[in-house]
Amino acid sequence: MDNQQLASIYKDILALRWEPVAVRLLRPSEAIPAGVTEPTATLRHCQAIIAARRGWSLYMPPRRHACPDGAAIMGLIPMPPKLQSGELYLLFKKLPTLECARKMIAVRPCFPAGSYEATLVAPLSKANFEADVVIFTLWPEQAMWLCCAQSYNSGERQGFNTSGYNSTCADLTVQPMQTGKMNISFGCYGSRAASDISDFELYLSLPAAQLEIVARSLQKLAQKSIPEARHKIYMPPVMEKVGVQKKNTLDVPAIQINIDAANCLGEGLCADFCPYGVFVMEEQDGRPVPIVKNPERCTACYTCVGQCPAGVIQVLQQ
Ligand code: SF4
Ligand code: SF4
């Protein structure tokens, strides 16, 4: 798959507001690819990513990096002494002691100075270079689906590494490059103050080598799980009654299950999906229909209601 195809899979399935951003750290002596522009203004790495998600393809040598912390973390320049010592974090009142600042700096993902010569950023669909990572701007539900897609083939849990400091440089660029693993970041003091990421958005960065396999998993999830969850098919119609006190609070809530058997398709999804075996399929008038055999087991999870293709099951709580 090429970058254009990958970008449209992610954009369409997740309903992304913003184009994913391809990021590459230019190796020493590597040629500058065609199609990228050196901006006239200096930008922070987080601001360059915001510009890229709006369509810009940028070549960012150290002279165009406005944030020395970010440029040094990505190995473009040496870390300025006041940032290296941690004293600036105290002046900004972001950390309480030098000891704490030094610890945060020591464990932060970082490349040695001189490792790279520039950063390249571009909207994924237009990226004319091989990305190291791809950065997504997401709301939490979209990030959840990318986590599911990442776990889809391996069954592995995802772990994230962030401190709330140095988001787009350390968390989203260096960390996934060093580990080869997806990372989530919620932004940082600098990126929240200096870019237009909204309060309900977060970032997720994927090593570019995993872009295609995660896209394929996402396509599988889009066949059933994603539309079902987005349609909230298990949302019970009883939310307004949740706080109503019953006369006898020890009463188990009475649950009534109604099936419009005349319109039932008889394929038995209700019986298959019910986690408690409430239904049994039986022949009636020469066709299979679900019988509510064990109503006392029902917990009103609404799985059968959500899965029934004919919409003929009603689960009522009195
Ligand atoms: S899922 Fe619905 S249509 Fe299918 S057997 Fe059950 S009640 Fe009938
Ligand atoms: S609501 Fe849940 S527990 Fe009750 S019958 Fe349907 S699937 Fe089974």
From TrEMBL:
PROSITE patterns: 4FE4S_FER_1 (PS00198), 4FE4S_FER_2 (PS51379). Pfam families: DUF169 (PF02596), Fer4_7 (PF12838). It comes from the Bacteria. It comes from Neomoorella humiferrea. The keyword Isomerase does not apply. Keywords: Iron, Iron-sulfur, Metal-binding. Residues 255-284, 288-318 form the 4Fe-4S ferredoxin-type domain. One of its GO terms (molecular function) is iron-sulfur cluster binding. PANTHER family: BLL4979 PROTEIN, DUF169 DOMAIN-CONTAINING PROTEIN. SUPFAM superfamilies: 4Fe-4S ferredoxins. This is Ferredoxin-1.
